[in-house]
Write a structure and sequence with these properties.
The complex is a heterodimer of chains A (about 210) and B (about 625). Chain A has about 210 residues and is of the alpha/beta class. Chain A has helices at about 20-30, 75-80, 95-110, 140-150, 165-175, and strands at about 5-15, 45-55, 55-65, 85-90, 115-120, 155-160. In chain A, strands 2-3-1-4-5-6 form a six-stranded mixed beta sheet, sandwiched between helices. Helix content of chain B is about 30%, strand content about 20%. Chain B is globular. The chains are: A alpha/beta (about 210), B alpha+beta (about 625). The interface between A and B is large, with 65 and 105 residues.
Chain lengths: ~210, ~625
């Protein structure tokens, strides 16, 4: 196979309460300086971004919730074949941390068993300067976050989409935890994912559609 | 006491109509947070409210949302897809109960059979995705073009289907339909004369419709049954005609009118070699249910609001305020689109009035999940097949064809080594329809058992004469004695995981004459106006058609009724500057060069950037 072995594509899903900064995190990641991509594209089914981890390239296919998480209306399609998930909460909102627990549970039920999950406490910029003061905006301590992550076997980061603190680190860490993709030719039958997959190279082939003979 | 109750209730009416922007002042403590569904809709208004997340509704939602229409899309079920959901076995059980309790309009008579107990029949419900309304996608069809145009294809995985089997004289054949023109000529079993006639006919079908002699022939035969047309004009008779009409054409019944039958045959022929050596594609993980989810996601990306497990309980046509069972109220600026299975009680009468004007058609379905991989019927590297029982081919003397769609574990709808058989017929008498479907099931079952037994030939020896519990000797390897003797033996049956049958009704004609785009779209429920409430639009139940034909016609009709024109239907300028799309365009032009675009996992990826190679891209 002339398949470039160093690129692995990874479906990554976002989860978390509304307004914790899920989209901002991703936007920061895909529009960051060390990446060449620009603004997200309108109508893009999902955002894509490459990330170099060691000697291989991870291509993230990032699925945003598109607001469908608000009333727990995420479709099975959303979780299917997701190899990685970001469960995001806002470190200034305790309720969002509780909700994060819910999403972790949801992932264990809905997603594949070997999914790599990162727990991400966002909005670090709001507390970066006043970590020791009493009137800190921080409502979820780093220890609480760490404890949950350890308990559930998750990666853990506190990030700021605003200042880009730790944002790339999250994706690099996930990337290094994702197992290398098996060569596609191997075990065709036992891997239903690849049986007879068609690449529909463009209906532009025959654009003048007429499905009627009369 | 009733009076007392009433005053009590009147007081609480205000509570049941909270201001739409109600947000709890304090985020409640732990309770409630674990249940994300406890939130009520906190929106003041929307342009369009859609009830039901079935295929038609979901495409409509996305089409509207991408034109800037503010859509609120709800479903009374906890899952997407409504009448064309893809369900797990547990969801199927629950669904059957709902149907039998009369809570699922247009569905009746659901029978679900799960043999054995927990110990004899172990399965994980979640491993199954059973379509309530399975369909196949012809490669050359407006529907596929829409999936591309809307970018929803990006959420989906396509697999090819090239095996079309026809059951006749107690045998399965798959000659014509999965062969190329060249192979028809080399096939020894077809007479030269027949070959010539067939080629002449195929050429005629593919001929430009503008051709005058073709037009004239079509005009003169607009009401001729296809059987007579083939006989008179091309000297073609059964069994070749059966393959053309029921296998290639997938016609429902005898006497299909010539223009319709020709359109169906042409559909098959022009779909061949569009993406490869197959006419039809299947979706992985489920058909219409999966596509519905894709369009709902697309609509959500375009800012639609989604809430499942929610019902419309009241609508004030003057104030245009809709009230929901979660306690919220939303002003609906424009219209409400209602799936028949989601009709709120207060609209039941309006719906019934419309129903009186329409002719009802029946679709009866029998879906069976069996533990057998049925390799014999499915082409190598494929995961699905079609089996057709034409009229009069079954012992029940079926008047309508029974169409069976087979999917194995490779399609992600069941575990590897198992199969889902979706069978249906548009026989109007549901009792008869059930007999036909059961009979077709028995035929497939015995054929499958026969074939898997044949596999054992030469493996068994004398020790295979075994003794049953009753002490009677049983000849295990009796197949060597010939087929006929097998009938005297205790019947082996297939290992069934789950079997479900149900009857569905629809106002869409099986010939799709009342929904197809180029025909007059009248006499179906989406074209009718509700008396005294023009803001309410109903839509149709799924048709009996096994392909996606007719879906877009209906969506466009509704779209036009809402926006006044369907000119801007999915006329969206997606900014596809992302490399996958440029790659797709590049590979499309490469495919034009080679005139062959099949690319399975063995496809040489040199045309692709690394990512595209194992991705499903257009």
């Amino acid at each position: 196979m002339s398949f470039a072995p160093s690129t692995t594509s990874v479906k990554l899903v976002l989860l978390g309460e509304a307004a914790v900064g899920k989209s901002s995190l991703v936007l920061r990641f895909v529009s960051n300086d060390f990446q060449e991509n620009k603004e997200p594209t309108i109508g893009a089914a999902f955002l894509t971004q490459k990330c170099t981890v060691g000697d291989r390239t991870i291509k993230y296919e990032i699925w945003d919730t598109a607001g469908q998480e608000r009333f727990a209306s995420l479709a099975p399609m959303y979780y299917r074949n997701a190899q990685a998930a970001l469960v995001v909460y806002d470190i200034t909102k305790p309720a969002s941390f509780i909700k994060a627990r819910h999403w972790v549970k949801e992932l264990h039920e809905q997603a594949s068993k070997d999914i790599t999950i990162a727990l991400v406490g966002n909005k670090y910029d709001l507390v970066a300067d006043d970590n020791d003061s009493d009137d800190s905006l921080r409502k979820v301590s780093m220890e609480e976050g760490k404890a949950l992550a350890e308990e559930e076997g998750l990666l853990f980061f506190e990030t700021s989409a605003k200042s880009s603190h730790n944002v790339n680190e999250v994706f690099v860490a996930i990337g290094s935890k994702i197992p290398e993709a098996k060569p596609v030719t191997e075990e065709l039958g036992s891997r239903p994912g690849n049986v007879g997959r068609i690449d529909l190279s463009g209906p532009a082939l025959r654009s003048n559609l007429s499905d009627c003979a009369c | 006491m009733p009076a007392f109750r009433r005053t009590e209730r009147r007081k609480s009416m205000a509570e049941r109509r909270p201001s739409a922007s109600y947000i709890p002042p304090v985020i409640p403590p732990l309770s409630g947070l674990e249940k994300p569904n406890s939130h009520s809709l906190n929106m003041d208004q929307c342009d369009i409210l859609i009830l039901g997340t079935g295929l038609v509704e979901s495409i409509l939602a996305a089409a509207l949302a991408w034109q800037g229409v503010n859509v609120l899309h709800i479903d009374r079920n906890k899952h997407y897809g409504d009448s064309c959901s893809t369900l797990t076995i547990d969801q199927l059980k629950k669904w059957s109960m709902e149907v039998n309790a009369g809570r699922m309009a247009h569905f009746s008579d659901a029978q679900i059979y799960i043999p054995g107990g927990k110990h004899n029949n172990t399965f994980t419900s979640k491993d199954y995705g059973v379509d309530l309304c399975p369909r196949v996608m012809f490669a050359q069809l407006d529907f596929l073009a829409l999936l591309v145009k809307s970018r929803v294809y990006k959420y989906l995985e396509f697999q090819s289907l090239s095996s079309f089997h026809l059951f006749e004289n107690d045998h399965f054949r798959s000659k014509l339909s999965n062969t190329t023109k060249e192979e028809i000529f080399t096939d020894q079993s077809i007479l030269l004369q027949t070959k010539r006639a067939l080629m002449k006919f195929l050429k005629f079908v593919l001929q430009d419709n503008a051709d005058e002699s073709k037009q004239e022939l079509l005009r003169n035969n607009s009401n001729t049954p296809i059987e007579a047309f083939l006989k008179d004009n091309f000297r073609l008779e059964s069994p070749q005609t059966d393959e053309l009409i029921y296998s290639i054409g997938l016609c429902n019944a005898k006497g299909t009118k010539t223009p319709e039958a020709l359109a169906r045959i042409k559909r098959f022929l022009v779909s061949f070699d569009v993406y490869g050596n197959f006419p039809v594609m299947m979706l992985k993980y489920g058909g219409p249910g999966e596509i519905s989810q894709g369009f709902c996601r697309s609509a959500a990306v375009a800012d639609s609001t989604y809430k499942l497990d929610t019902r419309l309980v009241d609508f004030d046509p003057q104030e245009k305020i809709a009230k929901f069972n979660d306690g919220s109220s939303v002003k609906i600026n424009e219209k409400i689109v209602v799936s028949p299975t989601q009709t709120p009680k207060f609209l039941a009468k309006n719906y019934a009035e419309l129903e009186e004007k329409l002719q009802l058609f029946t679709v009866t379905r029998l879906t069976t999940i069996v533990r057998n991989d049925c390799k014999e019927w499915i082409a190598e590297n494929e995961t699905s097949a079609i089996v057709v029982f034409p009229p009069n081919s079954l012992p029940t003397n079926n008047q309508y064809s029974v169409q069976v769609l087979i999917q194995n574990g490779g399609s992600g709808v069941c575990p590897v080594g198992e199969l889902i058989w979706y069978s249906h017929t548009s026989e109007p008498n549901s009792a008869k329809a059930k007999e036909d479907l059961e009979s077709a099931y028995t035929k497939m079952e015995s054929s499958l058992i026969r074939e898997s037994e044949a596999d054992l030939e030469g493996v068994l020896d004398e020790s295979d004469f075994t003794v049953s519990h009753q002490g009677t000797p049983i000849l295990v390897n009796s197949f060597k004695l010939g087929e006929s003797l097998q009938n005297f033996l205790p019947k082996k049956t297939l290992d069934i995981v789950c079997k479900i049958g149900y009857v569905q009704t629809t106002y869409i004609n099986p010939d799709l004459s009342n929904v197809l785009l180029d025909k007059k779209q009248t006499g179906n429920i989406s074209s009718l106006t509700v008396k005294d409430s023009s803001d309410i639009l109903f839509l149709n139940m799924p048709s009996s058609e096994v392909s996606y034909d007719g879906i877009i016609g209906e969506v466009k009709l509704l779209y036009q009724r809402i926006t006044g024109s369907d000119e801007d239907f999915f006329d969206v300028d997606f900014e596809d500057d992302d490399e996958d799309y440029s790659q797709a365009v590049a590979s499309a032009s490469a495919a034009i060069d080679s005139e062959l675009a099949i690319e399975d996992s063995d496809y040489d990826p040199s045309h692709h950037e690394p990512f595209g190679a194992n991705e499903m891209e257009l």
